[in-house]
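Exam revision sheet. Question 4 asks you to relate a sequence to its structure. Input first:
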Amino acid sequence: MKLVISLFLLTPLWASFFSSDKEKEVDVSSIVIADEDTPVDFEQPKIEVDEKNAEDWQKPDYSLSLGSMGYDKKTFAVPDGLKKQVDFWKDIYTKYSSWQGVLHDSEHIDHIYAEIDFTPIMKNNDLSAYQKRKAKRKMVTDKKKEIVAIMYKLQKTKDITGLSPEELRIWLMYDDVSEKDKFIKAAKKGRLRFQLGQKDYFLQGIYYSGRYLREMTEIFKSYNLPIELTRMPFVESSFNYRAKSKVGASGIWQFMPSTGKQYMKVNRIADYRNHPIRASVSAAKKLRYIYNKTEAWPLAITGYNYGPSGIARLSRKLKTKDLVEIIDREKSGRFGFASSNFYASFLAAIQVEAEADKYFNKPKWMPEMRAKEYKLSKSIRYNSLQQLFKEEGYDFDLYNPQFTKRTKKYNWLVPSGYRVYIPQAKAENMWASIVKLKSAKLAKRGSEGATYQVRRGDTLSHIADRFGVRVRDIMEWNDLASSRIYAGQTLKIPNL
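Answer key, structure tokens:
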């Protein structure tokens, strides 16, 4: 989680999030806390609930968290200083759909200037998707201009008797704010913020989550972590395993590439950030690490978004482990709206999902998708694995979303040692069939291409020209951080 978009504040949900340490990238986006100002639509298509095969949603049992690391019954209670923020995100998740949104003050989050409804635009079949997006942006921009004009007028107002009802409403909204020039400051960029609703996408996230939550619960229990943490993907990606942010965060946990590589394979063949269960193991390890660093779950969860080192640094600087105090005192641009609201949005998500039957009409779960993990003992072509699954009536890509588009397109080898996931119901028989597959041999210039030993005077440009590939391809394939190479170095040359 970018929106996100951490693809929503959180989408594509999703295609507008940012990330921090997510360590060196600050203000990570979550799929739901997308940006300082979220987009006017989400790029992810909605899916239809398969009523025939869907399961009834199950209420979470957080008593399973008792005895876990740093946990008691009050661990995830809403602090007094975050109640307004949590209520705001609960409304975003349950009151406003993705055809609606609100203009609000990013510092005084409960100050809602206007509710915006895009329904007439969305129902206009004469408009293209681009025209609809443009019309929605104009609607938001025009409304912002109206609010700014009102704020400037209020700043100069001495006698409120001549104010219109709308102007008076906003005046009274700031009655308890004693800050000098409060209306002018509230009208500045960054303060006047638009947030798109997410009710429909949150409900869709509940549906998606049925596939994974039971196994994720077992994983987090095995790491002695509170079960509530398994609900973080509601904020990061709404459990969409295809969620990607504009800055490169990917999967239901929105790992950035650099962070993902610390915990799992992230390369040209496979990106395990996109495998929900494998990524959940990595998320458990990362959250355990951050908690040990911060010694407080509100800080650890915020650190997942803002960066472990960043939140630990703020805690030391301000000499407190109280997240509310840190939010109140730290006003730097790096600790922006997304990071300061990440924990509140998480608490809101926990509450909404725990009472899903109250907020949504008969929420459903996708059937659980259990799989067994195996390590290949030999290299096998991608298409061979895909065909074997097809013959058994399964979708290889659905169970193994970690393999990249290029692996699929060019039928690359899946090397020995890589993990594959096989439907639990037929795991032993299918694995036996995979074992019988012939080991794929490297062609002279196969998927992995040739290997080349760098000679004195070689440059990546010359080597790329020689093999008919791009410099960037060689760098990515060999995980090179720069174009510097040295004599005697062995490079893999991809066949593209």
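Marking note for examiners. Confidence is low (pLDDT under 50) at residues 1-35, 442-447.
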